[in-house]
């Protein structure tokens, strides 16, 4: 189910939050959900600030299922900023994005001056595999540091712009439900931030099924892939200027009307066009694999057997499928998925009562 993220953990007691001469350290843990775009962000007009060439819109995923948990600790005893991702230390000095997020937060606060921060972050889903780990990861980092440093937004969405500088898609993870990222027009990026179109409670029946086709790290990161696309794909330029603006309006309207067929069709078309721009990139990039393409064909066959659009799909920059479905069709959809794509023994889906589901799938033909 898609839900709004729960409220953040309560901040630590005032004595450890305020930078008094006695405060020698403080620690804060936050959780952030990931989000899956149904109109894709792909391409930057400014690579330093992560300003996009088109607006995008996404579903925030219930963070009980897919989330990043990040703990930030500031201490006078730390010698340098450090970050551990999934138990492995990353080289912070080599990561411009992490440094930019730190600099933006510190530039907006007088707290903890001169002290260093340690970050420990864990994703409970595949990292760098096309399930938007950078979105959950940088949303968590920006939010945690923003709270630790008691940053007060000087305009609505300022924290979202800090997350955006870490990873573009992260700006959309700071709100729940259906979230648009308006591309904005300012050079400093202050108007390029997330806006909640509607909370998840607006359409609680809308659910996603995530099919992990591969949890391996992708060969081409989103950052690198979209940059080559901007430089070489005429289709991407056409899409950004002439396709996405109308699609954004149609998509927001479909969500607000809870028009599933329109919503799912737009999502499928946008995913397909995004992957077409990958093929149009030179040299081409292949994020989808044979199983991904089989899932696409399966969804179309399922819908035509149903005589209506009951399932949609969208694929980010990776082979993993995100299926869109309404609750009333979720069992039927899952049953059909498991019939065509049997889950590996030991995987989560294999715990589902498959015989009953397969019967239902067979009864439906
Ligand atoms: P994805 O499709 O998973 O978003 P990207 O190529 O956009 O893939 O980004 C993956 C990168 O994002 C990782 O290699 C890592 O550098 C960064 N990242 C992922 N999770 C986190 C996290 N929890 N904290 C900090 N950085 C993260
Ligand atoms: C296909 O936000 O990961 O998931 O801004 O370079 O960090 P950077 O890229 P990233 O790109 C996401 C691309 C996408 C579509 C989307 O989430 O809108
Ligand atoms: Co990403």
Can you characterise this structure?
The chain is built from 10 helices and 14 strands. By secondary structure, it is of the alpha+beta class. A hairpin with a 2-residue loop joins β7 (82-85) and β8 (88-90). α3 crosses α4 (158-166). The model has no long low-confidence stretch (mean pLDDT 92). Bound molecules: adenosine-5'-diphosphate, ligand DP6 and cobalt (II) ion. This is diphosphomevalonate decarboxylase.
Strand order of the largest sheet: 1-6-9-7-8
Low-confidence stretches: none
**Rg over CA atoms:** 21 Å
Report the sheet-strand fraction: 15-25%
Give the number of helices: 10
The H/E string reads HEEEEEEEEHEHHEEEHHHHEEHH
The major sheet is characterized as: 5 strands, mixed
What form results from the Cα inertia axes? globular
Ligands in the structure?
Answer: adenosine-5'-diphosphate, ligand DP6, cobalt (II) ion
Topology:
Layout: H1 14-17, E1 25-33, E2 35-39, E3 44-46, E4 51-52, E5 56-60, E6 67-75, E7 82-85, E8 88-90, H2 96-106, E9 116-123, H3 133-148, H4 158-166, E10 178-181, E11 194-198, E12 206-211, H5 222-232, H6 234-257, H7 260-280, H8 290-306, E13 311-314, E14 321-326, H9 327-340, H10 354-363
Parallel strand pairs: 7-9
Antiparallel strand pairs: 1-6, 2-5, 3-4, 5-10, 6-9, 7-8, 10-11, 12-14, 13-14
Ligand DP6 binds at residues 37, 40-42, 50, 56, 132, 134, 167-169, 222-223, 316-317.
């Amino acid at each position: 189910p898609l839900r709004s993220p729960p409220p953040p953990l309560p901040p630590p007691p005032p004595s450890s939050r305020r930078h008094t001469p006695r405060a020698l350290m403080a620690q804060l843990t936050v959780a952030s959900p990931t989000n899956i775009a149904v109109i894709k962000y792909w391409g930057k007009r400014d690579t330093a600030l992560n300003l996009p060439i088109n607006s995008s819109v996404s579903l925030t995923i219930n963070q009980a299922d897919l989330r990043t948990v990040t703990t930030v600790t500031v201490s006078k005893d730390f010698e340098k900023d450090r970050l551990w991702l999934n138990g492995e230390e990353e080289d912070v000095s080599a990561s411009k994005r992490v440094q930019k997020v730190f600099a933006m937060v510190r530039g907006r606060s007088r707290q903890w001056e001169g002290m260093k921060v340690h970050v420990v972050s864990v994703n409970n889903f595949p990292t760098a595999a096309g399930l938007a780990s950078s979105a959950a990861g940088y949303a968590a980092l920006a939010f945690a540091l923003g709270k630790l440093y008691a940053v007060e937004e000087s305009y609505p969405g300022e924290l979202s712009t800090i997350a955006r500088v870490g990873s573009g898609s992260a700006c959309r993870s700071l709100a729940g439900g259906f979230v648009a990222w308006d591309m904005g027009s300012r050079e400093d990026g202050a108007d390029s931030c997330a806006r909640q179109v509607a909370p998840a409670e607006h359409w609680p029946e809308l659910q996603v099924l995530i099919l992990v086709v591969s949890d391996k790290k992708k060969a081409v990161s989103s950052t690198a892939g979209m940059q080559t696309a901007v430089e070489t794909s005429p289709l991407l330029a056409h899409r950004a200027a002439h396709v996405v603006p109308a699609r954004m309006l149609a998509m927001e309207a479909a969500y607000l009307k809870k028009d599933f067929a329109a919503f799912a069709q737009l999502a499928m078309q946008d995913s397909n066009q995004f992957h077409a721009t990958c093929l149009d990139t030179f040299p081409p990039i292949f994020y989808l694999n044979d199983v991904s393409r089989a899932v696409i064909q399966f969804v179309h066959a399922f819908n035509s057997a149903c005589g209506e659009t009951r399932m949609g799909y969208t694929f980010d920059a990776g082979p993993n499928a995100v299926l869109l479905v309404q609750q009333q069709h979720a069992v039927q959809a899952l049953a059909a998925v498991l019939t065509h794509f049997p889950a590996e023994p030991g995987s989560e889906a294999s715990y589902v009562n498959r015989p009953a589901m397969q019967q239902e799938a067979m009864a439906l033909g």
